[in-house]
Write a structure and sequence with these properties.
The protein has 737 residues and is of the alpha+beta class. The chain contains 12 helices and 37 strands. Helix 8 (488-506) links the parallel strand 27 (463-466) and strand 28 (511-514). Helix 7 (441-457) runs parallel beside helix 8 and helix 10 runs parallel beside helix 11. The chain binds (2R,3S,4R,5S)-2-(hydroxymethyl)piperidine-3,4,5-triol. The site of (2R,3S,4R,5S)-2-(hydroxymethyl)piperidine-3,4,5-triol (DGJ) has 11 residues, from loops.
């Protein structure tokens, strides 16, 4: 990042008129982008520019070329008719803010990130807002957030507190965002911005990405294109209720705001306290949606995902294989099976705990994190010994933010749950699930101890699956004072983050999966503490093509847990051949979620082979750049994408047929991201065909592959009894010199 601040009178020529510009400018830049603010002392902080990189010497011209001339952090009160980022009620009841620049600061963080803070002060009241911007070396991301504080004698009520704001020049601007529901997460919606408001929001309380996501793509040049056009990406890095607003009136700009959802969350700010809004990460690319995704992925792997530079293990998860029917012999058998297929880790899912109330189904035991010794007489120690015997690592499932009313925890501490005073709580999963009140420090300790006790007693535990299967169903904290009940949603997530920070400080190396009834918590608020997330409880490979496509808009493949599961699928009841199930799962963090003893020998052989082949390419999938090639949502009969290693010497290409008709004519997919000058040898992975592809072992230039591509046969060349309506291909490309 480079910051250019100057304060002088300069004259910019527009036509023949000299326009005096008295200003102090803040130029925040990455290698390819610039964000410019006008920050004259005593004046309103004004947004001038965000987009392609401009030089310092171009700033004067940029200003006279036309800018939004709007507050960079609009506050309510003195321009009542506009949408605002911030609104407050002062101690004396005054509802207005008038913020002006009082200084600019710049700091460098230990990881090399640069932070620029523009300090705004109210003209009358002792009320301060720091508007912050952070950039990282070699990353195309600008993070923005604010810090709000005051020195008034009493409590100031914050009624709106967005993290950031961006004017978008009206033209043909489109928004792409993710929508969905349980078992159908991360589907893509795209729509043009029109007059009125587009609001994308969440009110789940505990999880925030089952339905909409707090990330958006904004295509500035018409309908979203994968590889071309100017696109801004925005990701609110927050795990709680959020609200993204696009406001369009009769002006030249759409106004975009993103931040915590202020509904039912009025915040009472004490004198001297600082309210820190979550980070809003912005990125810009001229390479369409794909360019923005790659910017997010690179930043995430290095800064926003736990261990983003470490290869993930290939695992077997017990859930779809045995559900709650955990027992020692069964776990040992699954460990033996995954080990024999070349896997590296076994994760025991739900069902292992509960003493007075053993966890037989989802209606009891959450909160009682002791081993059910009827199921596991030798406890976790015995399981760790099994894992060692089979040469793999061991992981375990927990859901520490929750309890059931049928649990010893609830009997001892009914005051720990979220519930309104004078009312019985609404109950969730299993008819008895409740959410623990993480605003309460004692509950924070309790949740920390769930992990701490496991890890202290069994330091060999390699992996934790952290689940969260209930929203905040009724508003009420038994810990917060009656005046601060409106802090519940915010304090819940502050509490959660405090716990996660403690866990990471003490256990930096353990792998932790972020799961919330599937993909309910895929957000950059939590991912810094987690290694990956469970994309969806829907493991149907065909539906996963769509969900993983949408997820990849903002999240890298290394973070997407993607498992080979049984047929018929347990969610859609669709019967998809193992080859296709493998080829889809291999495009994320590969895992298996099946009862191996129910697999046929053929299936086991294919999975074993896939595990071995995935090990050869996992660094490309997990660390490479992703190029989406053929969009399943365009309904062209197939979907395709590829990963390319950073040095462009190796690549993996995926192609999945998404529908089947006779005499079908699918498009020929051209590749992307390769070096046009390099020569690549093609080798098919997970091959089931009797004969190799015509181009097996052949060498093509990157130029040819990106301009012409390779034909994908419509079906597999297998014996008649093995034919089915699915087809998929995984190709490995390696440079030959
Ligand atoms: C919901 C998760 O998404 C599943 O993978 C599984 O862990 C169950 N919870 C267990 O109850």
């Amino acid at each position: 990042m480079k910051m250019n601040i100057w304060k002088k009178a300069c004259f910019a020529l527009l036509a023949t008129v000299a326009i005096p510009v008295w200003a102090q400018h803040v130029h925040i830049s990455t290698d390819k982008t610039s964000l410019v603010l006008e920050a004259a002392e005593g004046e309103t902080l004004t947004f001038a520019y965000y987009g392609d990189k401009i030089s310092d010497s171009e700033i004067g011209n940029m200003l006279v070329a036309g800018t939004p001339k709007k507050d960079a952090y609009p506050a309510y009160g003195m321009q009542c008719i506009a949408e605002t980022a911030l609104s407050a009620v002062h101690v004396d009841g005054n509802m207005t803010l008038q913020l002006v620049v009082s200084g600019v600061r710049s700091t460098t963080e230990p990881n090399g990130a640069k932070v620029t803070s523009i300090v705004l002060k109210d003209k009358v009241y002792p009320f301060t807002v720091n508007v912050n911007y952070r950039t990282y070396p070699n990353k195309e991301i600008i993070e923005t957030w604010t810090e709000i504080s005051h020195q008034e004698k009493g409590v100031v009520k914050l009624t709106q507190f967005a993290s950031g704001y961006l004017p978008l020049r009206v033209g043909d601007v489109w928004v792409s965002h993710l929508y969905g529901s349980w078992a159908n997460e991360a589907r893509v919606d795209e729509e043009p911005l029109q007059h009125g408001m587009l609001v994308i929001k969440n009110k789940d309380g505990a999880r925030n990405t089952h339905t909409s996501h707090p990330e958006v793509m904004i295509s500035l040049d018409g309908k979203p294109q994968e590889n071309t056009g100017r696109v801004i990406g925005a990701a609110l890095c927050y795990s709680g209720n959020y609200k993204l607003r696009f406001d369009t009136g009769d002006e030249d700009y759409h106004w975009f705001f993103a931040g915590i959802n202020e509904e039912n969350s009025e915040y009472h700010l004490q004198k001297g306290e600082t309210f820190v809004t979550p980070v809003l990460a912005l990125t810009y690319s001229k390479e369409g949606l794909g360019g923005v995704s790659r910017n997010f992925h690179r930043w995430a792997r290095e800064y926003k995902l736990a261990h983003g530079n470490k290869l993930r293990k290939i695992l077997l998860n017990s859930w779809e294989g045995v559900y709650f029917n955990i027992n020692e012999a069964g776990m040992d058998q699954m460990m033996a099976d995954i080990s024999s297929m070349g896997g590296e880790l076994f994760v025991m899912d739900d069902g292992w705990f509960g003493d007075k109330y053993p966890r037989k189904n989802d209606s009891s035991s959450l909160g009682d994190w002791v081993v059910d010794t009827n199921k596991l007489p030798h406890g976790i120690k015995g399981l760790l010994q099994s894992a060692k015997k089979h040469g793999i690592r061991f992981g375990i499932w927990i859901e520490p933010e929750m309890a059931n009313t049928v649990s010893e925890l609830y009997e001892k501490h009914p005051e720990y749950i979220i519930k309104p005073t004078n009312r019985e709580p609404n109950l969730g999963r299993g008819g008895t699930q409740v959410v623990l009140d993480l605003s309460n420090p004692k509950v924070q300790d309790l949740v920390f101890q769930v992990v701490d006790t496991l890890m202290t007693n069994y330091p060999e535990i390699d992996y934790i699956k952290w689940d969260a299967n209930a929203p905040i169903m009724n508003h009420g904290s038994q810990y917060l004072t009656k005046d601060n009940q409106s802090h519940l949603y915010i304090e819940y997530h502050r509490g959660l983050e405090k716990v996660l920070k403690r866990i990471r400080a003490k256990y930096p190396d353990v792998t932790i999966q972020d799961c919330a009834s599937g993909g309910g918590r895929a957000n950059y608020g939590l991912l810094p503490y987690f290694d990956e997330f469970w994309v969806s409880d829907d493991t149907d490979a065909l539906q996963r093509v769509y969900m993983q496509w949408g997820t990849s808009y903002f999240f890298p493949a290394i973070a997407m847990a993607s498992h080979i599961s049984a047929a018929p699928n347990h969610q859609t009841f669709r019967t998809i051949p193992i080859k296709y199930r493998i080829d889809v799962a291999m495009s994320g963090r590969l895992g298996i979620e099946i009862q191996p003893k129910n697999m046929t020998e053929d299936e086991k052989t294919l999975v074993k082979n896939a595990v071995a082949e995935y090990k050869q390419i996992r660094d490309i999938v997990q660390f490479g750049d992703q190029y989406r090639l053929l969009n399943p949502n365009e309904k062209k009969g197939a979907a395709s994408m590829m990963f390319v290693s950073e040095d462009k010497t190796r690549s993996v290409f995926y192609w999945w047929k998404t529908e089947t008709f006779c005499d079908q004519h699918l498009p020929r997919v051209t590749m992307n991201g390769l070096d046009p000058q390099k020569q690549y040898k093609v080798h098919e992975l997970n091959r089931i065909d009797n004969r190799p592809l015509t181009y097996e072992g052949k060498v093509f230039s990157g130029d040819f592959l990106m301009n012409n591509g390779l034909e994908m046969p419509l079906s597999h060349d297998v014996n008649y009894d093995k034919r089915n309506d699915y087809a998929s291909r995984v190709l490995y490309l390696e440079e030959v010199k």
